[in-house]
Design goal:
The protein is of the alpha+beta class and 119 residues long. Helix content is 19%, strand content 37%. The protein contains 4 helices and 9 strands, in the order E-E-E-H-E-E-E-E-E-H-H-E-H. A 6-stranded antiparallel sheet has the order 1-2-3-9-8-5. A 3-stranded antiparallel sheet has the order 4-6-7. Strand 2 (8-13) and strand 3 form a beta hairpin. It starts with a strand and ends with a helix. The relative contact order is 0.27.
């Protein structure tokens, strides 16, 4: 897995990049009560707002970590947003992207670097 400074994780599955938020981010948000997901087949650029997460504490945006096409979203989160708190790095992925070049992931942190960031 790779990690962003915005507390997102990225995992390669075949030729797709799966994106979610880290356990640290889920803990900071508190109990997640609503997740708004993007539409599949949406083209996004790095930094575009892709998802909205609402918790009992605050609303937060998930930004596209890289350029690409969203090809699948995790519909389970619509009915069970609490999955974000229960399994943030597993069952609670947000979307899958198709990217032109997977080497773009080399710019992100590995797990040790991310742990140093969050302390």
């Amino acid at each position: 897995m790779k990690f962003t400074k915005d507390h997102e994780w990225l995992r390669v599955e075949g030729d797709l990049v799966v994106v979610g938020i880290t356990e640290h981010a889920a803990t900071q948000l508190g109990d997640v009560v609503f997740v708004e997901l993007p539409e599949p087949e949406t083209m996004v650029a790095e930094g575009d707002e892709v998802c909205v997460i609402e918790s009992v504490k605050a609303a937060s945006d998930i930004l596209a970590p890289i350029d690409g096409e969203i090809v699948e979203v995790n519909e389970k989160l619509t009915d069970a947003p609490s999955l974000v708190n229960e399994d943030p790095t597993g069952a609670a992925w947000f979307f899958k992207m198709k990217v032109d070049d997977l080497s773009v992931l080399d710019q992100f942190m590995d797990e040790d670097e991310y742990q140093d960031l969050v302390g």
